[in-house]
Design a protein that fits this description.
The chain is an alpha/beta fold. The chain folds into two domains: 392 residues, Alpha-Beta Complex (Amidase signature (AS) enzymes), CATH 3.90.1300; 69 residues, no CATH class. Helices cover 42% and strands 13% of the residues. It has an eleven-stranded mixed β-sheet, sandwiched between helices. α11 crosses α13. The longest helix is centred in the last third of the chain and has 24 residues.
Length: 476
Amino acid sequence: MREPIPDSALALSRALSRRELSAREAALACLSRMEAREDELHAFLTVTREEALAAADRVDSRRAAGEELPPLAGVPMAVKDNLCTRGVRTTCGSRMLEHFVSPYDATAVARLREAGCPLLGKTNLDEFAMGCDTGASAFGPTANPVDPARVPGGSSGGSAAAVAAREALFALGSDTGGSVRQPAALCGVVGLRPTYGRISRYGLTGFAPSFDQIGLLTRTVEDCAAVLEAVAGFDPRDATSARVFSEGVLRAVGEGVRGLTIALVRESEEEASPGVRRELLRAVRCLESRGARVDELSLPFLRDMLPAYHILAAAEASSNLARFDGVRYGFRAPEAVSWQELIRESRSRGFGPEVKRRILLGTLALTKERYDACYGRASRIRAATGAALREALARFDLLLLPASPETAWRRGEKRSPVALYRSDLFAVPASMAGLPAVSVPFGAEQGLPVGMQLVGRAFEEAALLRAARALEEENA
């Protein structure tokens, strides 16, 4: 086995196509890194060693036979454990689904398997993707590879940590209110939330379906574009799937930012930590030096979006998770003597504290007495702020703000749920409007990665990744 393998998916793809190493060697290298670091990081909940090696061997056999293979064939991947994987358990980080084995693949997973990507395993997450630090998993927290005493962000913290630690070349995550971009920022990798509907949600366990979107975590912006082209596209099994083609995104990445108009969100300067603010202003200078025009834009409703998001997402979660009742599937309290006790005990013992908190908040927001004041008002905020964001993007090509107001904090440092939720402050706007957004590593604060976020128009991921590439080049 040759070490080290290339750090990026596309670099590895080129090495594989030139037969400088085999897909089996690449998979073994990743598995070796996992063996070396998993006791410390706990990025994975399930490791599929034999499946990964068998898939790698199939790629090697096809290549040896002279078959023309997809670009990512042989590039090992990881998948967040709320995405269904045929024959591999899908726990959602919850005791409720601890032993659930899916009979089918999520569409995004199926497309990557068809592209020849060996599955290394399923990554840790906050239970049912409800959290900001991957500390709400029923199976223990994940550590940040940059500093294991700190959190990796959430809820896709396992996927971000796996990519940052080079345990996988790329990973799938999910982003409801920032669950790909925020951990990408804290771990120092690229995290893309595509336009709502760009990637099929079929096989993604629902948290808040009007927000949920499968996202990507990669080492480079080019890798992000390549994986997006592999997984995106219409899916008749997902009613929200868009009939939009994704070809040409990778080709556009290197076109630069000359002529783009970018708005710096003024309020993000005020809410960011000093180090993050410093890097934000450096990002402005970088983009201007490369030919973009950057102006300031005020979004005074920025602070209103976070509480509105939490009310709406919790309301959807309380409805979605009603299916876990101990009757049909999932954890079942064995000693219950009545159906009422069965449901009560199964849900009380199967769900963790954060999930219960959000179910209770959502149920309260949907009661007759609170519906208009809570859910109705939050819905109106979503509509109004979404319209304002789209209006801003009619004037500018992109919006610029940090992905997180601060860098990774120490585990246990934030004891209040509200303090944790604040880490999604800058990520929520794109989620509320269904817009594409990317976090790209840019500088550091006291040695910890800072992520810069760009938000773009619906289905214009190409422009988004062009600007992200410019920041990446400056950060190199």
